[in-house]
Amino acid sequence: MKDDIFIHLCQPDAYKSCGACCGSYNYADSTKESLVGRLKSRTDLFHKTVTRPEDLTGFSEMVKISEDQAKIFEVIYCCEYFGFLDDEERKVGCLLHPHRNKGVDLRESSFYGRELCEGHLCPSYQYLSREEKLALINIITDDWYLYGLCVTDIDLVKSYFRLISERICEMPPPERFRENVLREIALRFFSYKTSWPFRSYATNRFGKYYFDGSEYMIKNINYETLGCEKSRFDSIFRSLSSEFKNVRELKEGEKLIQANIDELARTYERFA
Ligand code: SF4
Ligand code: SF4
Question: 226 CB under 6 A from ligand 1?
């Protein structure tokens, strides 16, 4: 990628994409397994039943009847036109997009309408630096589910690269994350988004947020109750939906994050 090229976070390459703003993670059951099943069946249904714009109403009704509509946050719409874009099911995105429909843009029929869908760029476009964007794209090579969770978690991405940069006195050039050894270490960190041992599984949690009907709030870690100082990894812990039962668990969490940063720094310097 050349320096002057816009970085398309939504569809960065042929091996992954994001669809977080289409409501893909807002189903009450948003595990990868559940989402894959949902997207497979609606994409099949779309191919079988939609041959002209008039078919979209029937498709939309069928999806809404056949799929569980329970949501985490009522205010965010979960779009029924979000599906798999390729046969290998590596890329997710809009089934109404003109690229999918011989140049015909069908997004006018959607909940948000064509203009909103086409023009939307989430805050990650603005707040992640060019290096952070490219590094993340290089680290999460081919997992749309993990990529979408991480690329929209500005705190997580910025906190990690800040800690790494402080440790090695520079932001690693994004190309360095194409090296397997560095990529694997960083990928282990970002994979905590789904495998973090201290994660709350409450269905009203998503990253640092928790939801109550149409309200949402940031779930802070209560250090006073735990009987310790605010952790240096606080923003990472919140992004990972952490729920520590006691200070021993919090210290274990800190050790895991620190170990990852140390390993990445050592490896970076060894292969510099
Ligand atoms: S959440 Fe951001 S990166 Fe993801 S599809 Fe929407 S605009 Fe693109
Ligand atoms: S119509 Fe397409 S782009 Fe718009 S919300 Fe639905 S899936 Fe996303």
Answer: no
DSSP E strands in 38-149: the ranges are 82-84, 92-94
Q: Are 151 and 124 in contact (CB under 8 A)?
A: yes
Please state which of the ranges 30-39, 99-108, 201-210, 262-271 shows the lowest mean pLDDT.
Answer: 201-210
Q: Above 50 in pLDDT, residue 2?
A: no
Which of 7, 11, 16, 18 is the best mutation target for the ligand 1 pocket, counting ligand atoms within 8 Å of the beta carbon and taking the most?
18
Round to whole Å and give the CA distance between 63 and 95.
13
Of 29-33, 37-41, 63-67, 208-212, give the lowest mean pLDDT range.
208-212
Query: Using an 8 Å Cβ cutoff, are 186 and 177 in contact?
Result: yes
81 CA from centroid of ligand 2 (Å): 6
- Rounded CA gap, 99 and 101, in Å? 6
The pLDDT of residue 1 is above 60: no
This prediction's pTM: 0.95
CB atoms < 10 A from the CB of 122, how many? 15
- On the question of pLDDT at 86 being above 70, the answer is yes
Q: Give the H/E segment covering residue 121.
A: none
In 87-228, at which residue ranges do the beta strands (DSSP E only) sit?
92-94, 205-206, 209-212, 215-218
Per DSSP, the three-state class of 84 is strand
Sketch the domain layout of the chain as residue ranges.
20-121, 154-270
